[in-house]
């Protein structure tokens, strides 16, 4: 069973979905605004938004004045989890590279 980190990475593997995340980084947007900014057809955008919602990266809301309008917003938790994982990997490699550097310097 995929973890939430696996779903986040899988969703971000597509360049169109990364671009959607970049657009939503600045502010919540309507689907039409996202489609125009990313250059996707409504059908293609819908497929990508469905994947982003399934991975919990994006949430959809409807304003009180018109239930037909959909506003998309980034959810911070999946990106925070990804950042934590990347920080842990960075620490691991920094430790390993420092040990390698020490080894090479002792050999010289």
TrEMBL record:
<protein>
    <submittedName>
        <fullName>ArsR family transcriptional regulator</fullName>
    </submittedName>
</protein>
<dbReference type="InterPro" id="IPR036388">
    <property type="entry name" value="WH-like_DNA-bd_sf"/>
</dbReference>
<dbReference type="GO" id="GO:0003700">
    <property type="term" value="F:DNA-binding transcription factor activity"/>
</dbReference>
<dbReference type="InterPro" id="IPR001845">
    <property type="entry name" value="HTH_ArsR_DNA-bd_dom"/>
</dbReference>
<feature type="domain" description="HTH arsR-type">
    <location>
        <begin position="1"/>
        <end position="91"/>
    </location>
</feature>
<dbReference type="Pfam" id="PF01022">
    <property type="entry name" value="HTH_5"/>
</dbReference>
<dbReference type="InterPro" id="IPR011991">
    <property type="entry name" value="ArsR-like_HTH"/>
</dbReference>
<dbReference type="InterPro" id="IPR036390">
    <property type="entry name" value="WH_DNA-bd_sf"/>
</dbReference>
């Amino acid at each position: 069973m995929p973890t939430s980190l696996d779903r986040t990475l899988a969703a971000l593997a597509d360049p169109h979905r990364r671009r959607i995340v970049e657009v939503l980084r600045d502010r919540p947007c309507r689907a039409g605004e996202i489609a125009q900014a990313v250059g996707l057809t409504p059908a293609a955008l819908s497929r990508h938004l469905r994947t982003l919602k399934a991975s919990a990266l994006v949430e959809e809301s409807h304003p009180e004045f018109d239930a037909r309008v959909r506003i998309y917003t980034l959810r911070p938790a999946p990106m925070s989890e990804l950042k934590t994982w990347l920080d842990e990997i960075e620490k691991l490699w920094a430790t390993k590279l420092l040990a390698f550097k020490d080894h090479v310097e002792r050999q010289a």
